[in-house]
Amino acid sequence: MRDSPTMIRSLARLAACACILALGGCATVQPWEKGNLARPEMQFDGDPLLSRFEQHIYFSKEGASGGYGVGGGGCGCN
Amino acid sequence: MTSSSGRPPSAAVARGAVIAAALSLPGVAPAQSVPEGAQIGFKYLHYQDSQPGLDRITVESPSLYLLAPFAQRWSLEASLVVDSVSGATPRWHSSISSATRMQDHRTAGDLRVTRYFRRAAVDVGFAYSTEDDYQSRAASVNLRLSSDDNNTTIAVGTGLTDDTMNPNPGSVLAHEESRRVNEFIVGLTQVLSANDIVQANLSHVRGRGYYSDPYKFLDHRPRARNQNALLLRWNRHIAAAGASLRSSYRFYDDDFGITAHTVGLEWAQSLRGITLTPALRYTTQSAASFYVDPLPGSPVPPLVSADPPYYSVDHRLSAFGAITVGLKVALPLGRSWLLDAKVDVYEQRGQWRIGGEGSPGLAPFRAQFYQLGATYRF
């Protein structure tokens, strides 16, 4: 596998940054304070058909993919 | 028990019912709650891509979606899409003279069943798609666990995909081929404040089998591919502006030699009941180690790559930068209906690559697509 140690090191560094970013500075938010988080536009996958279409388009026309979920299946489009 | 703002519990109870209902909406972190109601959606995609002097692929694609809770602690999610694909594709690079016409229909469906627990959820999913020369079957399992305060959710998932490819007019395949792919994902979702939520997903994909494109000139790719992706997402609500900002960054790396960075920004603006969302996406990728540049002045490409015996003249494996500009409009009608429309314009160019030289000798690749949707909640 090409560049495996460099790739793993870069990924580990990025994952660490992601964890720090996610957990740093978080306060305990109570259920009654989560009204804004419940808004449709605040969801990570608020439009499932749109997500499916767009991920399929980019999978078909580019070299990179993934990171959103597993088990979506393949196609002859790529 | 006091809230972080020091409000006594009694003031919170008044809003409790609304919040509880809101938390059970599908997709709301931590997603351990059964969706409160069912939802059926329809969306139509029209897609057209091109390069200067050649209209390429057209896709017409109606799709359906269903989300339904049942038996108190379960939900079912399903979708179905039928693609009609037609048009012309160059056999190598941006070569208009080599372009061959094709037509195909693809039907794809997926189903997911989720069982909810107090602070956890488990789901099992299946996906199946079929087209003239390609069938795909996938199964997956995910587990989500939340902290006591529901502010932190950890998710792990694994999937298996089995694909088969058949000989077809225009394809160099003489017999059936296949590919098996294993996927793994681990994700962390964290509520940072009343207006901020972030997610980090790390995925690893290992595939073995046929990866070549049988419609492309001399295409010969490795029979194994290992891919890694790190996706970081942040949704922030800005009450003063009546808007939400959704940002994302994905790092991608694989052993074909492709490294890519993708950033996305969406600004969802509320305007008198309508939500207007302009969106911007930029991606930059390196070329696969076996991608071959065109030879200036030659009608056909070089016959050997820098990474023999592997070879590809598929521009999708070249080094480029690509930009998407989009606009979505969402209009609720009454309590049950939501109509939406989105338009996107995409362009891919070697010169737009950041982080290295873009692949030379390719025409700009463009695409336009629009989506029209309607959702009914009941």
Order of helices and strands of chain B: HEEEEEEEEEEEEEEEE
Strand order of the largest sheet of chain B: 1-2-3-4-5-6-7-8-9-10-11-12-13-14-15-16
How large is the radius of gyration of chain A? 18 Å
Specify the oligomeric state. Answer: heterodimer
CATH arch. level architecture of chain B: Beta Barrel
Count the domains of chain B: 1
Major protein interface = A-B, 64 and 126 residues
- Which percent range fits the helix content of chain A? 40-55%
- SS strand fraction of chain A: under 5%
Order of helices and strands of chain A: HH
Question: In angstroms, what separates the terminal alpha carbons of chain B?
Answer: 36 Å
Kindly report the average pLDDT value of chain A.
82
**Share of helix of chain B, binned:** under 10%
The helix tally of chain A amounts to 2
Uncertain ranges of chain B: 1-9, 12-30
Mean pLDDT of chain B: 92
Strand-pairing-aware structural class of chain B: mainly beta
Number of strands of chain A: 0
Which homologous superfamily in CATH is the superfamily of chain B?
Answer: monomeric porin ompg
Please supply descriptive tags for the structure shown above:
heterodimer; A: 78 residues; mainly alpha; flat; B: 378 residues; mainly beta; Porin; 16-stranded antiparallel beta barrel; 1 helix; 4% helix; globular; disordered N terminus
